[in-house]
Structure formats: C-alpha cells, structure tokens
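Sequence in, structure out. Go.
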Amino acid sequence: MPNEPDRPRRLTVERNGPVLIEGPVEIVREDGTIAVSDRFVVAVCTCRRSRMYPWCDTSHRRRTKPPGADPVSRPSGGGGPGGPGGRC
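Output:
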C-alpha cells in the first residue's frame, strides 16, 4: 500500500502506549509476513504483550496483581520493550 504522495503518513507516539498510525497500513514482520489493516487509525504495539501483535490490544494496561499476591521487587531503570521497565 503506497502512501499518498501529496501527504506524509502521520505517526503519533503515545507515552506508555502504542504508536498510532493513520491507516491504511501494511506492517512487515520479522519473519517477512505482512500484517494489513485498512482502519482509519491503527494502534501498533510497542510492548510486545499484545495477543494480536503487531496490533495493540491494550495489554500494556493490565498490570494489576491478583489479590493476595506478594509484592515483588523489580529492578530499577530501563530495560527496553518487553524487558524490565518496558511499556507499550
């Protein structure tokens, strides 16, 4: 899907959230397969927690602990997407 030549494609980066892309879009995955969406705006996962990857399913929001769970100390600092401190 080529972009419209007279208008650049707009990406919106959400803090602790997905990247929003004006659609339609095609995403080439690491294995070479292509994911296609014809939606007006597409949310692309950056945390890799999504069950619909590469599309965001808001899994980055589900960070609650089950009742009665013991607190776990987490390393401080970055880490990157999918690692300690990584967020979508």
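Check: Residues 41 and 74 are 34 Å apart (CA to CA). Confidence is low (pLDDT under 50) at residues 73-88.
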